[in-house]
Amino acid sequence: MIALACDHGALELKEAIKAHLEARGLAYKDFGTFTKDSCDYPDFAAPAAQAVASGACEKGIVCCTTGIGVSIVANKIPGVRCALLHDHMCARLTRQHNNANMMALGAAVTPPKMAMEIIDIFLDTEFEGGRHQRRVDKITALEK
Length: 144
Prior knowledge:
The protein is of the alpha/beta class. Helices cover 47% and strands 15% of the residues. A 5-stranded parallel sheet has the order 2-1-3-5-4, with helices on both faces.
């Protein structure tokens, strides 16, 4: 299950992501927002991140106009490693090296086609472990 959330600035992107995940046969939980009415991104990104941290969702995708605000919010939740992604290489490496369990996208920054490619790479790339596990463990220790 993939947690999804956005603010009003990324509603169209989130809807496109939902269609993309459905086409791939992947389950998701939509934490909102559901309208273009002005809203506060923490109200939606935080519950999505909490679902990932608790294990209710395996991974998460959060979006706002730039992706910055939602990534900051998600990373405030212990157990979440959310990467703001703009390209293929970072999508691959954040999974391989950081074992990121959430990603953020900016609707005004990343075109929809590129966003779907980034999502696919993020979802399909496995964590390499090894020396990278030691580093992820050090990140996790900072939360305590």
